[in-house]
Fold this sequence. Notes:
By secondary structure, the protein is mainly α. The protein has helices at about 15-40, 45-60, 75-80, 100-105, 110-135, 145-155, 155-165, 170-185, 185-195, 200-215, 215-240, 240-255, 260-265, 270-275, 285-305, 310-330, 340-350, 360-375, 380-430.
Amino acid sequence: MRREVTGATMARPQITPSVILTIAIVVLVHATVLSHMWPYISAGRVDFRSLYEAGTTVLHRGAPAYQLSVRPSVPSAAEQMDPLRFRTPRGPDNLHPPFELLIFTPLAALPYRVAYLVWYCCNSLMLMSVLLALWKHIPELHSHLRLLLFAGATAYPVLVSLSQGQDSILLLLLLTLSFLSLKEGHEFRAGVALGMGMFKFLLVGPIVLGLMVARRWRTLAAYGVTCVALLLASFALIGAKAATSYWFFIFRFGRVTPPVATLNHMPSLREFSHALVPKSVPAMWVDVVVIGLSVLILAFVLVRCANAARAEVLDLRFSMLVTTATVISYHFFVHNATILLLPVLLAANHFAGPGRHAFARVPFLIAVAAMYFAPFVISEPADMLVFFCGSVVLLLTLYRSTTRDASQDFSSLSRSVTTQCRTANSADYSVRPSQD
């Protein structure tokens, strides 16, 4: 008798002619974007050039310079308006942690264009690996494989991350591995994956705090061990003095408010606040308010994550932590929003189940539509503001869903305890001896 293949038992996606056609369309889209960006890539006007130059510096001279007098690897307003006017390639990156140069130093041994294409292919493979790794955990979405392939591979943050040669897809993969390890009970492995993502420490930080309030001590221990190992790797790669100076440089650089043209590429609470507040208000005051709101949002989310949850709700709570990190991050470019693919996939699978959270489906779809279409159909800076509003709606939807799950768990527990008490009382009454 032929066994029926269902979503729960399908370990791998089924490759059909329509799926192959979808993949071909995705490849065509990426080839079109790559051909459009190639003059900028050849001129060294993409982010990968800075990472490549940092790797070259380590390869030949030993250590990059972490000084405020050195031009930060953030494009100016004039460069963003017409990058090809500035034919001089960008200087070495000085915003990424030293241990990340373990990736880009080997690439620096290759010619620049070859290294770019190699890193582009690595990012593409990592993006596909995310879907394959999550596949058996999103059974409700198995019938929508073509939509997942197209929407995931052509989302604006993904296209930016690929074309700029950024590392956001690597962070997406590490967060996915951390989540899957937690779901399968491999807490030490989850902490290692999370620690490897510390090259984006502003995005990993809220997730670590969520694990702390959830008392995932083994995961936190593995995370700490990994961070120490990365720090020692930084010392070995560029020396203790240069590695230590990076953190002082980042602290000083974080106190400098980026220009408006840079904020226009940040779909976060910081950019939203600067866009709404009149220009006459000092930027420092706005940043103080942003930090206060960020702490408040994080506190609400951590309180929600503090309660123990069923394994089913782990999907929503991990998704909520990732989404919170994108909303409140102090330095958050649009390519970093690639990590939102993880909460979107997990939440879509959860909400698509029969009888699950019918109230959440409409706001969830609105949030996803806003984040996907806004960068393509709305001009700057309104596109990033709409994108940010979509991420906020997603966060509120996840928060409300986890709250309802908790209340449903409590109600079920209360009903169970009440039923058991009534049964015990009835049994006690039936065996009580007669007083006659």
